[in-house]
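Thread: Modeling a multi-component assembly for a lab meeting

Hi all, long-time lurker, first post. My supervisor asked me to bring a structural picture of a complex we are working on to next week's group meeting, and I have zero experience with this. I have the sequence lines for every component (792 residues in total). Could someone generate the structure of the whole assembly? Inputs are pasted exactly as I received them:
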Amino acid sequence: MKELLWKHITNVRKQAPLVQSITNYVVMNNTANALLAAGASPIMAHAHPEMQSMQAICQALVINIGTLDEYWVESMKLAVTAANQNNKPWILDPVGAGATAYRDEVLSELLTMKPTAIRGNASEILALAKHNKTATKGVDSTSSSLEAVEAAQFLNEKFGAVVVISGAVDIIVSEAGITQLKNGDPLMTKITGMGCSATALLAAFIAVIPNRTEAAVAATALMAVAGELAAQNSTGPGSLQVGILDKLHNISETEFLNTTTILA
Amino acid sequence: MKELLWKHITNVRKQAPLVQSITNYVVMNNTANALLAAGASPIMAHAHPEMQSMQAICQALVINIGTLDEYWVESMKLAVTAANQNNKPWILDPVGAGATAYRDEVLSELLTMKPTAIRGNASEILALAKHNKTATKGVDSTSSSLEAVEAAQFLNEKFGAVVVISGAVDIIVSEAGITQLKNGDPLMTKITGMGCSATALLAAFIAVIPNRTEAAVAATALMAVAGELAAQNSTGPGSLQVGILDKLHNISETEFLNTTTILA
Amino acid sequence: MKELLWKHITNVRKQAPLVQSITNYVVMNNTANALLAAGASPIMAHAHPEMQSMQAICQALVINIGTLDEYWVESMKLAVTAANQNNKPWILDPVGAGATAYRDEVLSELLTMKPTAIRGNASEILALAKHNKTATKGVDSTSSSLEAVEAAQFLNEKFGAVVVISGAVDIIVSEAGITQLKNGDPLMTKITGMGCSATALLAAFIAVIPNRTEAAVAATALMAVAGELAAQNSTGPGSLQVGILDKLHNISETEFLNTTTILA
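Re: Modeling a multi-component assembly
Sure thing. I ran the full set together rather than chain by chain. Output:
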């Protein structure tokens, strides 16, 4: 399995997919750099008059609602519509799901446009599922991690998306089952936009790899393993951020195979 | 006094306040990372439909007008109104005060909404005071630093805000008096957004510490001391920026106590 | 020649020109930091009500269309109009020229406002020339690099701009002839916004140095040489980004003279 993931990582580098990101202001620079470091090419654009033609030249689309507003939500819908028409994958990052009614309403509309994949932390995935369930079908679980998996399974069944739950253990949920990765480092939570970078990598991998579940596992593993390795030489979140970009670029097959930890 | 400041620093880490920033595009990433490194949690949001509910879940608000426009000014007013209704502190960073009439007008409106604290460099504080004084009460001082202190005192008296004047010596002005800190490093002026990060820390500290003046001194000291310590291992502004984020996270009590310099 | 370029570099530091950038969200932080590291002062502003008065206090203007939209295009036109009225230089960075009809239309309008200089990669310069040529005057060349030079010459003749073509060899084209610089490092292509930083430096140099061609060569050389030197101590794109900011600040005359490579 790990060898297959590494093959996918090298394939992304070879094919260098062009990924359009409609994402939040806070992480645009990191996101573009994470894509470049992993061998993909970033495009950031949001003007309504060019959403259709911009999507046509890209291989995938990231929709990240972190700093949404009315104009940008319309940009998102235009780009998603174009991606769907062109059968291009698009990935939803539901930043702050559950924080405000506005976010939840926008996310509900986006969900009906059927994202290829969704990535968020457990509370975002839970909020997303809760807001889009009928009231009678309550989530009933004692473990919040289990609860998030159930929420992810619901989202996968209802909307067809592969779902990645980021956390100390990253969990990839799809119709193919559940994969758990135990990589990363707690210091990664002290840098903004790590999740957003993971989402962008997810888009690059799904653009290139036909099996969406494998693509999601490979992208998630790459991000977490790069973070874990970089943390070994970091003295704080500043140097970790720099080190992750370095490692996304220079990670070796041996490093990747020796570090990736897939839970049974 | 220094021990008290350190206690405040550890309190911010323990309580991890959620700080909403409506700030400029240039520094959003740094600002979020500075807050995370100091143990707080950042939220960046500006959409009108969610300003009320977003503020309700935050403990403080930063208003930084660096890249303002008509939409964002309205976001600022909506968020400030919500903060005031909820008795949450909000901090004003008057970037570019005095540079254009538009900025001065926006700042005048924001001032009437009574910021809990204001942070800027001497020329911004001077411009802010000048624009909001009656013509007859001229500032009359031979030293520009003294002049800025008088301007800060005026702002404190008229609008009730604690005022932090950033510079080679940082000056905190409030109804409790004047505190001067001699920390930092000249290389910090070669990185964009150091002041904006200081403002964000100020918000995090005021969110948690009941005494606003102490909060302002502690936040200002933390930023300047982290910069001073990081500069010792930097070869230029790039590595200094990285080093400051590291140091905000890993600064020890001994480092802080030994480096902080409060002028008599 | 190299000594002259170094003299220009020190002059920018001495005069510290104020450069307004209307640029894309992805690179604003890097751009501001590159300007600061090279000794200039950045201002980022785009609000319509302040475009006229903001330009009046700046020495140069950068127009970078990377993340354009309708509001920002209007900001660009207002600022360019002000710059032209005040005889201030303005520099065009045609990010993504040729990618969408919207970009090409906006760029055509901006070109008629006569930029002092233009900087882009070969494909952008080619797209810019192609879109603004009459159909009968086709570009006819077997080498894409030669083709880009012809496109640059066309843009110089028709619109009067100095044109910088970024690439493995940077080419500066003006009425004074063609200069080719062979510096930089392939790893620079794995960082977002290197070209945008080069454009910003170009603005700072043209603000201060009367001979536009010399200014363009000096700015282009500084960016490429800083990148080349920083790459020697980098382990990936993250550390290279940090190292370039350091080197823009601490580069010595000897380093610059020994590294700069002007092709005959």
